[in-house]
Amino acid sequence: MPEVVATAESVAGLRMKSQVLAQPTGLIGVGYQGRDIASFADGLAEAQFSRLVDVRLTPLSRKPGFSKTALTRALAAVGVAYEHRPELGNPKSNRAGFAGSPAELAEARHVFAALLSRPEAAGALDALAAAGAAERVAVLCFEADQHRCHRDVVLAEAVRRSVSVRGSRRPAH
To answer: One Pfam annotation, family name (predicted)?
Structure first.
């Protein structure tokens, strides 16, 4: 089962917890807010990520190096594969809620979670869960505060899909 580490520290300065770095596989959320492309890519390589899955609906950025083509090149230069999953992107109409009040945030998370039930999103979530079981995968969006980003909902759903639940076999009294 993939491990998800939902911290704002993720790759921001590579202040990752040592137990996270000890895990060879798993899904770990990363935001590039406040980062430059060189230190971001180097940080992923140093933390031994093999893949980055971009969950932005549109992989464009005003920050130099973080649009799809430039990001793909920077990651390839350090040995990290790039994969864009627009099926897991948050529509523009739902983004403001992630920066809003606690009630607005809860509503935005609810709206986005409902979007993940679409067949194309379900397939992308299954692929993400499978990748996390096989390798160390960074799940990317912009925000440094993962709780204020839709990737937090994506990660929770990917992990939920990868967990097998079994009932107890306790004898009846």
So the answer is: DUF488
How far is Cα 164 from Cα 114, in angstroms, rounded to an integer?
A: 22
Gap between the Cα atoms of 57 and 121, Å rounded:
12
Amino acid in the structure at residue 103: A
Predicted TM-score (pTM) of the model is: 0.83
Q: What's the order of all strands across the beta sheet hosting 4-5? A: 4-5, 26-31, 136-141, 51-54, 81-84
The one-letter amino acid at 50: S
Alpha helices by DSSP H, listed for the chain, are 18-22, 37-46, 68-77, 92-95, 102-115, 119-134, 150-162
For a pLDDT cut of 70, what percent of the chain falls above it?
80
- Which domains occur in the chain, in start order? 4-161 (3.90.190)
pLDDT for the residue numbered 166: 42
- The CA distances from residue 14 to 26, 35, 68, 125, in Å, are 16, 11, 22, 26
In contact, 54 and 140? CB cutoff 8 Å: yes
Question: Is 70 exceeded by the pLDDT of residue 164?
Answer: no
